Amino acid sequence: MKCYICAEEGKDTDAVAICIVCGMGLCMKHAIREEQDVWEGGYPFPSTKVSKTLPRILCPYCHDAIKRR
């Protein structure tokens, strides 16, 4: 798999990760690793924030969209 953003720029770079939101292949330059909160609880809504976080890989587009919330 190749990095989608590099491909848009006319470059041919191998992907090292996939965006957890959109599934875009990403190289090391464009992959954003971020710790995300984890919630647990029953249906219909999670009720308790877990004390630990999980690492997630995001593309710059999804990272910007999530940060705008």
Task: Please give a quick description of this structure.
By secondary structure, this protein is α+β, with helices and mostly antiparallel strands.
Question: What does this protein look like?
Answer:
This protein is α+β, with helices and mostly antiparallel strands and 69 residues long. Helices cover 19% and strands 35% of the residues. It contains two helices and four strands; from the N terminus they run H-E-E-E-E-H. Strands 1-2 form a two-stranded antiparallel ribbon. Strand 1 and strand 2 form a beta hairpin. The longest helix has 8 residues, at 60-67. It is elongated. It starts with a helix and ends with a helix. The mean pLDDT is 92.
Mean pLDDT: 92
Biggest β-sheet: strands ordered side by side in the sheet: 1-2
Number of helices: 2
| β-strand amount | 25-35%
List the helices and strands and how they pair.
Blueprint (H helix, E strand, L loop, with lengths): L3 H5 L8 E2 L6 E2 L5 E9 L7 E11 L1 H8 L2
Antiparallel strand pairs: 1-2, 3-4
Main attributes?
two-stranded antiparallel ribbon; alpha+beta; 69 residues; 19% helix; 4 strands
